[in-house]
Amino acid sequence: MKTDHVVTTWKKNMRFHTTNPAGEFHIDAGPEDGGDGDGVRPKALMLSSLAGCSGIDVAMMIKKMKLAVDDFKIDIKAQLTEEHPRYYDKVTMEFHFYGPELSEKKLQRAVDLSIETYCGVMAMFKKFADVKVETIFHHS
Q: How many secondary structure helices (H) and strands (E) does the chain include?
C-alpha cells in the first residue's frame, strides 16, 4: 500500500513550511485572516490538487493516444459554505483545449475517464461537493 508523508512546521504567525514528496513550499493565511499572504492558501491548494490530478491523467492520455493538442488548461471556480467549518460545496471545473486539429470525442473521453475513474482527488471532492465539469474546445 502506498503511503505519502508530509511534514508541516509552524514558522510563526499564520505561516507554515511544508514538505511534499516532490518538494517544499509555504502555506500562509491572507491578510484578511491575520496572515501575511506569503504562501499558498490551504483550501485553494485543494483546488490546485484537483486540477493537477485530473490534468496529469488527461496529459497521459493525450500522450498515449498521440492527440494533437497545442495547449490545455483547467479553470476551477469553487464556492465556500457560509457556516464553519467552511468547505467547498459547489465546484465548477472547465477543461479548455486549444489547437487546430482537436479530436473532441477522444479528448472528451480522456476527461471523462479522469473524472469518473482515475482521479483520486476528484473522488474525494465528490464526497463533499457538487462538482460540475465542462469541456471547451478552442479550434485555432
A: 3, 6
Q: What is the pLDDT of residues 84-114, one digit of tens each?
A: 999 999 999 999 999 999 999 999 999 999 9
pTM of the model: 0.93
Hunting for cell 467549518 — which residue is that? 85
- 62 plus 25 within the same structural domain: no
Residues 6+ apart with CB under 8 A from 55: 72, 74
Per the structure, the count of domains in the chain is: 2
Distance CA 20, CA 5 (A): 7
Sheet of 71-80, strand order = 71-80, 88-98, 130-138
